[in-house]
Amino acid sequence: MPLKKAIIIGASSDIGSALCDDWNLKNWELVGTYRTKPDKFLHLSKILKSLVQCDLESKSSIDKACNKLNDSIINWDVLVFGPGLLDPIGLFSECNFDVWEKSITVNFTNQLRLLRLLLPHRKKQSLDGPTVLFFAGGGVNDAPTHYSAYTVSKIAMIKMVELLATEMPDVKFIIIGPGWVKTKIHESTLNAKDLAGLNYERTLQKLKDDTFTPMKKVVECCNVLIAESREIFSGRNFSVAFDDWDNPNFKDLLNNPNTFKLRRYKE
């Protein structure tokens, strides 16, 4: 019997495939999606029970993928959303609005469409309920320029996680900011060059110095938070790089219901 059952939306992403590798070693039953066949396709197809094509720009593709996923796995314990789209990069006033709107759809709206279609097949018998995991981005504590579609999508998802946690108390909804991880997503910034503003030079420097959050730490954080209590952890936004999630006393911070949530707050 598998230890757990998981669906990884964007299993072909760098973080998604890292989670697949880790959970496969732990004898999890895995199914996942890809948009276009990646270099890792053959490897993923060997360790996943089912690997389904899904284009988050297309509602019909999403609906077809969900039908296949729901046929492949029932009573899932973990549902992960890994896709992320930085484009369009540039000042809002200079971006093609159709492309800008498409980014909101891929990063936010259509991920929730997938969630709606997959939720009915979640595991309902477990004491602590299943976990739904999203990934956050920057911009919560400042106003970064040149990435408005991506930033506002991620901030909206942070709030949506809190709303879902309140509306569905039998499910643990969490969102994790992985920080600067060495993944394919940075190719968009490198291709944009001057359109990315200061972030272009910053990305080049990160690559030169290799000062990224280790993928191993991202996977470890996901595993720790998936294992934690729904009542305490659900509805919150965690940071791999800046939170002491691996500290035994970390739970003490969460006694405050406002901690790691998106709001105006003053004691």
What features would you highlight for this structure?
42% helix, Rossmann fold, alpha/beta, 267 residues, globular, 9 helices, 7-stranded parallel beta sheet
Task: Summarize the model shown.
The chain is an alpha/beta fold and 267 residues long. The protein has helices spanning 14-25, 41-47, 59-72, 97-118, 148-167, 186-192, 198-209, 215-227, 230-233; strands spanning 5-9, 29-34, 50-53, 78-81, 131-135, 172-177, 236-239.
Question: What features would you describe in this structure?
Answer:
The protein has helices at residues 14-25, 41-47, 59-72, 97-118, 148-167, 186-192, 198-209, 215-227, 230-233; strands at 5-9, 29-34, 50-53, 78-81, 131-135, 172-177, 236-239. The chain is of the alpha/beta class and 267 residues long. It has one domain (5-183, 214-255): Rossmann fold (3-Layer(aba) Sandwich), CATH 3.40.50. The chain has a seven-stranded parallel sheet with strand order 3-2-1-4-5-6-7, with helices on both faces. Helix 1 (14-25) links the parallel strand 1 and strand 2 (29-34). The longest helix is centred in the middle third of the chain and has 22 residues, at 97-118.
Instruction: Provide the spatial order of strands within the biggest beta sheet.
Output: 3-2-1-4-5-6-7
Query: What level of helicity do the residues show?
Result: 40-55%
Q: Provide the domain count.
A: 1
Q: What order do the helices and strands follow? A: EHEHEHEHEHEHHHHE
Global structural class: alpha/beta
- Which whole number gives the mean pLDDT? 94
End-to-end distance, in Å?
49 Å
Rounded to an integer in angstroms, the radius of gyration calculated over CA atoms is 18 Å
CATH superfamily: NAD(P)-binding Rossmann-like Domain
What global shape is seen? globular
CATH architecture descriptor name: 3-Layer(aba) Sandwich
| CATH class category name | Alpha Beta
Major sheet description: 7 strands, parallel
- What's the tally of helices? 9
Tally of extended strands?
A: 7
CATH topology: Rossmann fold
- Beta-strand content: 5-15%
